[in-house]
Amino acid sequence: MRGRDLLSIRDLSPDELDMLIRTALSMKRDGSPPLLAGKTAALVFEKPSLRTRVSFEVGMKQLGGTAIYLSQSEVGLGQREPVADVARVLSRYVSGIVARTYEQETLTSLAAAADVPVINALSDDEHPCQALADLLTVREKKGKLAGVRIAFIGDGNNVSASLAIASGLAGAEFVIASPPEYSLTPDVVETARDWARRAGGAIETVVSPEDAVQGADVVYTDVWTSMGQEAERRQRMEAFQGYQVDAHLMSLAKPDAIFMHDLPAHRGEEITDEVIEGAQSVVFQQAENRLHAQKALLAALMADEL
Question: 12, 6 in Cβ contact below 8 A?
Fold first, then answer.
């Protein structure tokens, strides 16, 4: 994988996904050698972040490297300076670019012009780094991925898109319950199902949250209104009534089901305090695993040898 980009979770093969998760587990257990000593990553962020920024900065430091944070006000991607020019300049300074953008097209343009790996740290289409951390968490808690039933309740957004495809790659059973107008795109569903058929998993789309969580090993939700969708908030709040994950909905899953959320959470909207603070919640372990999953990814793409 050395020198490649990760713009989408679909850039990985099943074997590469498994390798990254195994590497992350090893690094979490045993620590990590300075595989990126002397290397620097540029964090080019159009959107603000807590987990993504801190986990990449700490991850680079723990791998022996350095990270430089560049906000939109400093860089002005596509405004102050063309995206391609930014990519060509940074390629002469750094060993990799971690980009958090509004549009997937911005990432594509960065990668096309850059001579170093470009990592998608979130776009409107996907959040592959979150999916890596999610599957790492499921693997830790359930001991496997193949055959595990993951029920996602809510928006067919970037997080659920990456998780659906990653679940297909891993042979898991992924089901998403969404209002019809907020379901996953046909392209994402088709891609996820194609991988699931090969790996022995399954991908389902339903409308009813109750149907989705029946027999689930994992119950997952996300905010109903993401950054950049603030103008749609009232419309979305109405559409997602009945999609809150509460104690009753969790009771329909398996007794040992875990609850996941990529954070930040809007408590009282998509999730209740009782669930997110309850014994089944692993959201903070999930947040920690952003660090370990991304260390594995950084090492795979940027290290001289792994």
Answer: yes
